[in-house]
Structures are given as structure tokens and as C-alpha cells.
Amino acid sequence: LATESGQRFSLAIDDVLLGEIRRARSASGTVARPAASPKDIQAHIRSGMSAADVADLLGVELDHVTRFEGPVLADREHVIGQALAVPVLIGSEVEPDAQPTFGTAVRDKLSDVGASAERWASWKDESGWIIKLEFTANEVAHDARWSFDPRRSVLSPLNSDATQLSRQGS
After folding, report:
1. Helix (H, G, I), strand (E, B), or coil: what is residue 137?
2. Which residues contact 28 (CB under 8 A, 6 or more apart)?
3. Are 141 and 159 in contact (CB under 8 A)?
């Protein structure tokens, strides 16, 4: 970049800025916008963006994005399933042969507080997979988040709602 007086500056071009540049160019009609690659589209979907948001960001038609989102959405659902199946250790009140899972333990807690509108989501960011649970309890919306390492089957709470749901006892 350069100012009117000639000073020069460097600017890192990230995905957001690149999307804005493409959008500005296509709006002015100066440059035909190239189609986004499937790899770029899938990376954005994997990071939790919706198809409409990706289409807006990359300046492409929604139909172009939806052609490539299916496998990534299936992957994100699979990661949720893996997280819910992680075995957990709960105090002595469990039968010796029973091996409760993260999903069972969390759903038991949700049942105890009369929670409703349970909705799970996952996405991958630079630190790894994030598992999110939205629910409503006592007319208050909650958003619990855990980091998840599928290779090691390790979940770690990232906020207070997740910490509360991860604790043993009431």
C-alpha cells in the first residue's frame, strides 16, 4: 500500500481481505471473478461457515459452493459422533461393566436441569476441532464449547458452560 505522499506499507492478505478485494472488483466490473477452488470452499465450510457465507466471502454463486460442501458437513457430523462416543469416568454410582460416554453424561446433565433445544455443532480452526453444544435451560440460552482431539479421544472444556457440564455431580 502507498499513501498520497508516497509512504509505502506492507499488508498481509488473508482470506477476508482477498474476499473483499474480489467483491469490490466484481462490483466495479473491472475483473471477472474466478471460480473458487473446491479446496478453498471446503476449508471455509470445515471452519464452521455456512455455504451462503462462503459464497459471499469468495464472491461466487451459492450453487458452486453447495457442490463441494457435502463431504465436509458429513465430516463435521462424524467428528460430533466421535466426541459423543468418548468414554468417560464417572464416580462409583455406575455399574462396573457400564462404560458411559461423553454424550450420555452430558445428556444426563441436560435432563437434570430440564434443558431443551439441544443442538450440536463442530468446526476446525487453527488449534484443532471445536465441539459446540447450544441448549436452553431455565429460559437462558447456553453455549458450551470443548476442544476435541479425535486421535487421542480427548475433550477439554473451553468455557464455563462446558466446564459445568463436564463436572461430576450436580
Report:
1. strand
2. none
3. no
Phi/psi at 114 (nearest 5 deg)? 65, 35
Helix (H) or strand (E) holding 125: strand 116-125
Is 159 within 8 Å of 144 (Cβ atoms)?
yes
Cell numbers 468446526 correspond to 123
Q: Report yes or no: 136 and 116 within 8 Å, Cβ to Cβ.
A: yes
105: Cα within 13 Å, side-chain hemisphere = 26
Torsion-angle region of 139 (φ positive above 0: left; ψ -120 to 50: alpha; else: beta): left
The span from the CA of 34 to the CA of 59, in Å, is: 9
- Look up residue 77 and give its three cell numbers: 457430523
Tell me: pLDDT of 165 over 70: yes
Query: pLDDT grade, residue 150 (50/70/90)?
Result: very high
Decide: 43 and 37 in contact? Cβ < 8 Å.
no
Write phi, then psi, for 85 (nearest 5 degrees).
Answer: -90, 0
Q: Average pLDDT for residues 27-43, to the nearest whole number? A: 73
> Are 58 and 19 within 8 A, CB to CB?
yes
Q: What is the pTM of this model?
A: 0.73
Handedness of CA 96, 101, 107, 109 (dihedral sign): positive
